[in-house]
């Protein structure tokens, strides 16, 4: 945190010198986001990778973020009704009117196995040979190839609490876990101490990356956000946020 704070202060000083903040000071922005999904959005709604990236990108160009958490359907409805300035974590297939930012974070779903098993998983179709634990609604979110495999899979289950996946893998109750790599790493140190989470794992990159964007009510604010995003990517703040939430290797 000291490094993140120092980098942010440096960025702010640079912007003040350029007059980017303006005489009127910061402006409040209502930013909608989903419910708890650590490490991307923490339960408080005040921390997490997505929250902090959005907050710092907006602050870099003179805006103060007010974060509001909603279930996905409600957040989308409020965005479409013009009740939010920004909605985080979307893609351009959501419909309705809005102005989309540059991608500000990239999710990476992977297949994870215990290294000692030495399982040869090189493509999505290879999952058909093993028991699989995935996150809730994975069958609808990971593409047609994955859906085709799991629809006829006799030993495939989805779990709303992703810490369960970690527990199942490390205790040998499932062959493969499917989920975002950062979410998996977040829960490793939070397992019961009786679970041996020190076992080496193998990460199989069989899914494409999933970049996330923010949708804005106003195109000018979208452009300012994109500019702020570039600032924090260039001055080290962005990388410091990712490192802060990296979890164990």
From TrEMBL:
<feature type="domain" description="Solute-binding protein family 3/N-terminal">
    <location>
        <begin position="28"/>
        <end position="249"/>
    </location>
</feature>
<dbReference type="InterPro" id="IPR001638">
    <property type="entry name" value="Solute-binding_3/MltF_N"/>
</dbReference>
<dbReference type="Pfam" id="PF00497">
    <property type="entry name" value="SBP_bac_3"/>
</dbReference>
<protein>
    <submittedName>
        <fullName>Polar amino acid transport system substrate-binding protein</fullName>
    </submittedName>
</protein>
<keyword id="KW-0732">Signal</keyword>
<feature type="signal peptide">
    <location>
        <begin position="1"/>
        <end position="22"/>
    </location>
</feature>
